């Protein structure tokens, strides 16, 4: 693990794979950390240079000063790329990581060859549920929100039949600093890039679960219909965390897109 010193804290990151390979940058979801991508890293380490980070307030990164914004988190990514002297890369993001990807595609497109964005949303339509979640976390801690989140994150019956997976995700999220989680929740709540979507021409694959309740499929369809170089891949029997609900389909979509294999979308 390495650390990049920024103005008000240290950002944890890790590089692996080929030192001179094409770069893949992995950006995790709200409450997760870079370990979310362990399975995907194993798929690409022999063919690419890998960069992954803990966003501010997550994993081994410092909390920094909250609240955060998507712009702030995206600029952290740019600082890391500059620090590593990476001029261009491909970005793979999930949920919060996909919002960061959309901001970067809109504002710094020359830095990215392509993007794979899972559970993507270009704006939050209703802020009240996020305010309610923040208030609950402030009073009762992160563990108090999982009844709600399990319903949003997983397709019906997944929780009951996959307790090991669900508990592992819960443990990872519970390890996140409360201030960091709340700060990033505010960033998600306040994000809106709808007016920039038509300007985005980065080659892009959106991955969404057919039963996603956190970022419904209609949101991904709107992004795909507006961005000029964007494809949508829908995974059946999955909700927001298709990455763990349907791992083989999720990974195959990523590998095929990176390797320019046509997708059945």
From TrEMBL:
Class of enzymatic activity (EC top level): hydrolase
EC number: 3.1.1.24
Keyword Cell membrane in record: no
InterPro entries (alphabetical): AB_hydrolase_1, AB_hydrolase_fold, AB_hydrolase_sf
Keyword Zinc: no
UniProt organism field: Puniceispirillum marinum (strain IMCC1322)
Domain AB hydrolase-1: 23-246
Entry keywords, A to Z: Hydrolase
Gene Ontology MF: a single term: 3-oxoadipate enol-lactonase activity
Pfam families: Abhydrolase_1 (PF00561)
SUPFAM superfamilies per record: alpha/beta-Hydrolases
Protein name: 3-oxoadipate enol-lactonase II (Beta-ketoadipate enol-lactone hydrolase II)
């Amino acid at each position: 693990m390495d650390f990049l010193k920024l103005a008000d804290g240290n950002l944890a990151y890790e590089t692996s794979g080929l030192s001179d390979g094409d770069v893949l940058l992995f950006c995790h979801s709200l409450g997760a950390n870079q370990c979310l991508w362990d399975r995907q890293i194993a798929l690409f380490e022999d063919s690419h240079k890998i960069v992954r980070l803990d966003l501010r307030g997550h994993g081994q990164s410092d909390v920094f000063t909250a609240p955060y914004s998507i712009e702030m988190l995206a600029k952290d990514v740019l600082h890391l790329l500059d620090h590593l002297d990476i001029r261009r890369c491909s970005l793979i993001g999930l949920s919060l990581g996909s919002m960061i990807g959309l901001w970067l595609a809109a504002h710094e497109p020359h830095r990215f060859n392509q993007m794979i964005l899972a559970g993507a949303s270009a704006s939050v339509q209703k802020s009240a549920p996020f305010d309610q979640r923040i208030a609950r976390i402030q009073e009762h801690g992160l563990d108090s929100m999982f009844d709600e989140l399990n319903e949003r994150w997983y397709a019906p019956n997944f929780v009951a039949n996959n307790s090991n997976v669900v508990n592992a995700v819960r443990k990872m999220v519970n390890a996140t600093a409360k201030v960091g989680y709340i700060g990033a929740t505010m960033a998600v709540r306040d994000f809106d890039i709808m007016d920039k979507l038509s300007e985005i021409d980065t080659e892009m694959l959106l991955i969404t679960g057919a039963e996603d309740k956190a970022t419904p499929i209609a949101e991904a369809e709107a992004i795909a219909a507006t961005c000029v170089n964007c494809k949508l891949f829908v995974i059946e029997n999955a909700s927001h965390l298709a990455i763990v609900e349907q791992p083989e389909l999720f990974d195959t979509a990523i590998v095929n897109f990176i390797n320019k294999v046509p997708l059945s979308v």
